[in-house]
Amino acid sequence: MSSSGKIIRARSADANHRVLSVEQPTDTPPAFRRRPCQPTADQPACPWRLDARTGEYPAQAYRLSAPTTYNMATRTFGCHQSTVQHPQTCAGFLLCGAGDNLTVRMWAARGTDLSQITSDIPLYASYRDMAIANGVDPNDSVLAPCRGESTHWTGPEKR
């Protein structure tokens, strides 16, 4: 059974949006989505989806989340449709932005089956691509350390 993480930090991206930093427990399997989210009546689609409407979240939200794709990052990109009570890691992130994330690499090393994460919907090739499409300046220094350009997570056996 997977366990949800614990919110360790909340930062405001604008008056209507917060970016939450979540720490996943190390003694239980992590909580993560298996597919990038579809839009619902009250929630937009996963921002990693190429068909998602851009601008649903302010550029500042992407600036604050960029460090999840830095080499050896220990925090993951959270699913916007998970709840504060049960935060989960985003499937789009795991498919396209997590190859250099230390936490995700540790999950795989501990036997977490990430092969069950899939998408039939085309996704942005990298965090940088997604952030720029959503208003972050391509020359913003926060994007410089982003890793995983066009590298999708394929699991430890294929890396």
Structural account:
The chain has 159 residues and is an alpha+beta fold. It has one domain. It is built from 4 helices and 2 strands; from the N terminus they run ββαααα. Strands 1-2 form a two-stranded antiparallel ribbon. The longest helix has 8 residues. The protein is globular. The two termini are 26 Å apart.
Give the number of helices. Answer: 4
What's the Cα radius of gyration? 14 Å
Fraction of residues in β-strands: 5-15%
Low-pLDDT segments, ≥5 res: 150-159
Instruction: Report, as a whole number of angstroms, the end-to-end distance.
Output: 26 Å
Overall morphology: globular
Spell out the helices and strands N to C. Answer: EEHHHH
Number of domains: 1
Provide the descriptors you would attach to this structure in a database record.
159 residues, alpha+beta, two-stranded antiparallel sheet
Summed up:
By secondary structure, the chain is of the alpha+beta class. The protein contains 4 helices and 2 strands; from the N terminus they run E-E-H-H-H-H. The chain has one domain.
Could you outline the blueprint of secondary structure elements for this entry?
Elements: E1 6-14, E2 17-23, H1 59-65, H2 91-96, H3 102-109, H4 127-133
Antiparallel strand pairs: 1-2
